[in-house]
Amino acid sequence: MTTSPHSPADLLIRPMQDADLPAVVALRNLGFHDLDRRTLPRHLDVPALPDDANSALWVDRTRFVLGTDPGGCWVAETPTGVVGFATSTVRELTWLLHTYVVHPEVQGHGIGRALLDAAASHGSGCLRAMLSASADPAAVRRYLLAGFELHPQMTLTGVVRRDAIPVITKVREGTPGDRELMDSLDRRRRDAAHGVDHEWLLAHHPLLVSDTTTGAGYAYLHPAGGVSLLAADNRRTAERLLWAALAAGAPGVSISQDHLTGANQWALRIATEAGLAVHTSGYLAVRGMRPPVPYVHHGTFG
Ligand SMILES: CC(C)(COP(=O)(O)OP(=O)(O)OC[C@H]1O[C@@H](n2cnc3c(N)ncnc32)[C@H](O)[C@@H]1OP(=O)(O)O)[C@@H](O)C(=O)NCCC(=O)NCCS
């Protein structure tokens, strides 16, 4: 446990515990809602606060991360309670920052810096780091000062034109038996397997796999349409998987596909054919590596 020279004297930075999760999820909901109000373009409505199901899913994932990487998860506490937190993991030699929030009323006083330093100490032996960053200028400043390169992320929205969907072949449902294949693809695309993260992902997302003589790939489907995570050996396999994910969505329902980087132009070509709108939305921040391609990163597992 440490106090920080960069923040109020009564601030304690300490490891997160299971008992902190109710306070931490409330802070996550408040902090990101405030962020949306400050940073979303005017033509987009500010989403409502996350509902109970969304909060419960986030708590479940954070409890999982706390179990695998207790040394990567920290809270900032004052006499009034928990005012900030950062969660992170190490997979092979890559440090991944998951969620990072400071209460809006105490932002800008160095608490974020102290939290990021604590979480980053978990990845001190790593060669690479990766995170999906918000558009908050304060977060961006922290990441640039920590040596990250920023690559704008894009989000695709709208209703998929069903008549644009090609005939999809060579894609099957994935199973836990595909873990070795997925870890091997992860290493080729981003130099680090997701490893144990596949346990959580397999339990919460449908999985598609393409495994042919010319290359392999996998994609976890997002409940709101599109993919939560996609990795492939080549562009053709990635395209096949993204189309399969778009085809799996309910017809006529608007989707939101996050986390596309400029390195993945193949996905933007699909967006155009599918009639989806492209918006910029935060950054993929990387250190010691390039944005993976062909790849769609997960918002927290990277
Ligand atoms: C990102 C966040 C956790 C940082 O916490 P914090 O306590 O405000 O961080 P700090 O005070 O240590 O550092 C913020 C830095 O940004 C600077 N800053 C603040 N507002 C800024 C702005 N509008 N433009 C540029 N810089 C800004 C501060 O001056 C400070 O820099 P300095 O230390 O060189 O003076 C917090 O702002 C937050 O919760 N944001 C909303 C959620 C979010 O976006 N999280 C990151 C998700 S990836």
What features would you describe in this structure?
- This is N-acetyltransferase domain-containing protein.
- Residues 11-166 form the N-acetyltransferase domain.
- Keywords: Acyltransferase, Transferase.
- It comes from Nocardioides dubius.
- With 302 residues, this protein is of the alpha+beta class.
- The chain has two domains: 12-126, Aminopeptidase; 156-282 and 290-296, Aminopeptidase, CATH 3.40.630.90.
- Helices cover 33% and strands 28% of the residues.
- It contains eight helices and 13 strands.
- The chain has helices at 21-39, 52-68, 111-121, 137-145, 179-190, 197-204, 235-248, 265-274, and strands spanning 12-15, 74-78, 81-91, 94-102, 128-133, 149-158, 172-173, 207-212, 215-221, 227-232, 255-261, 277-287, 295-296.
- The strands form two sheets. Strands 1-2-3-4-5-12-6-11 form an eight-stranded mixed sheet, with helices on both faces. It has a five-stranded antiparallel sheet with strand order 7-8-9-10-13.
- Helix 1 (21-39) packs across helix 2.
- The longest helix has 19 residues, at 21-39.
- Coenzyme A is lined by residues 31-32, 35, 100-102, 107-113, 133-134, 136-139, 141-142.
- Residues 31-32, 35, 100-102, 107-113, 133-134, 136-139, 141-142 line the site of coenzyme A (COA).
